[in-house]
Amino acid sequence: MASYDFDLFTLGAGSGGVSGSRRAAAYGARVGICEDSIVGGTCVIRGCVPKKLLVYGAHFAEEFADAAGYGWTVGETRFDWATLIANKNREIGRLNGIYKKLLSDSGVKLYEKRGKIIDPHTVEVGGERFTTRRIMIATGARPVAPQIPGIEHSISSNEALDLAELPKRIAIVGGGYIALEFAGIFAGLGSEVTLVIRGNQVLKSFDDDVRETLTEALVRHGIAIRNHTEIVRIDKALGGLTLVTTNGAPLLVDQVLYATGREPNTHAYASTRHANTEGIGLENVGIATDRYGAIAVDEWSQTSVPSIYAVGDVTNRLNLTPVAIAEARALAETLFNDNPTKFDPTDVPTAVFSQPPVATVGMTEAEARVKVGAVDIYRSRFRPLKHTLSGREERTMMKLVVDRATDRVLGCHMVGADAPEIIQGLAIAVKCGATKKQFDQTVGIHPTAAEEFVTMRDKLPDPVAKAAE
């Protein structure tokens, strides 16, 4: 039997890599992990966590305004961007320390250098080579932007979290999670925000009622939307940046943030924002990838090389932090605990921390009509109780998609305050196959927004019936 330095060596110390490595070590495996950036990965260091801290900060302007309707007199307020960023950075530093301690306490050997695969059982880290029985690739993904003239004057979500000052005017290109979350952040903190999207509405893969409701809310929150528009050139001038577009007059802004997609961290890259000249060695072992560089894996997260596995965004399956963690833990169970485990990708809940937030689990109405045929749709739109006194014009939308034949709830969708917290609980019901009758039999907590999900009784007319009216 061959002798190896490690039983598992992981490339990438983000949420997936750390989680899978710790679980493997807990089962007695000798585990090494390498990271050439800050331990914690995209979500903890330059994504979900710092971004949500900024989302919290952006809510205060509205909270101050709402207070008047409840009898509070709020004195003069002033926002300081530098203070928010410094406090955010302090928290990220704390989390980085926690992640390092978690690895150390688990017995995982951390190498804070770039790693590369040499052969199916060898990795090179900072010039030093180690042999390993198995390799787990968990290197995540990075922002990408189109190579148009002047793109070097733009920023990505990485830089947006550490700007030296709050921009007075900012254009955000894209209509997905990241674009909408930053649009809410900057608008809430006082920036003039223009959202530039190629289509007509945001969140193209979401339910149509979600897309429509959120688009209307963005406009109410003062965010200008330039739809059916692409930027063809960015010119830098003394007055800021001029964005030449395919639709309408040029835009004059202080910053332009591209949130148009991410690509797997696999191959070499040297764009205007990145200068790594080495990939992670996939070519050395012939691992299959798609045209975007995403690593192809089977249902066990195994690559085309039997000893090498990949989890998380580097595989471009479901690019969500909890999914990467679940995939990595399933892999550790399979390889080191004699407990073959596959990650189940169905009915994964997700949220967009826009303002207002969006959360969803299960099928959209359009998906359900294609996959199961006849469905019943229940939808409610209302003004939240809080704003009956605050006077602010906010609307909440809730929706249930139900299989007409089985009465099973196929999808839950919400736009409005606390949507992520509410949908997290409903995700359990959807995962367990709950029926609409069981929703109806559940007693609501009053007065809450969440109770609406168990009190909706009136079905919407079918699309054909609507057309006939």
Q: Features of this protein?
A:
3 domains; 21 strands; 22% strand; globular; 14 helices; 7-stranded mixed sheet; 469 residues; FAD/NAD(P)-binding domain; single chain; Enolase-like, domain 1; alpha/beta; 5-stranded antiparallel sheet
Describe this structure in words.
Mean pLDDT is 94; it is low at 269-277. The protein has three domains: 6-141 and 264-336, FAD/NAD(P)-binding domain; 151-260, FAD/NAD(P)-binding domain (3-Layer(bba) Sandwich), CATH 3.50.50.60; 350-468, FAD/NAD-linked reductase, C-terminal dimerisation domain (Enolase-like, domain 1, 2-Layer Sandwich), CATH 3.30.390. With 469 residues, it is α/β, with parallel strands linked by helices. The chain is globular, with a radius of gyration of 24 Å. 32% of the residues lie in helices and 22% in strands.
CATH-assigned fold name of the largest domain: FAD/NAD(P)-binding domain
Ends distance: 75 Å
Radius of gyration (CA) equals 24 Å
Instruction: Describe the global form.
Output: globular
CATH homologous superfamily of the largest domain - what is it?
Answer: FAD/NAD(P)-binding domain
* Oligomeric nature of the chains: single chain
Structural class based on helices, strands and sheet pairing: alpha/beta
The total count of helices amounts to 14
How many E-type strands?
A: 21
Report the major sheet: 7 strands, mixed
- Please mark out the parts with pLDDT under 50 across 5 or more consecutive residues, or reply none: 269-277
Q: Quick check: average pLDDT?
A: 94
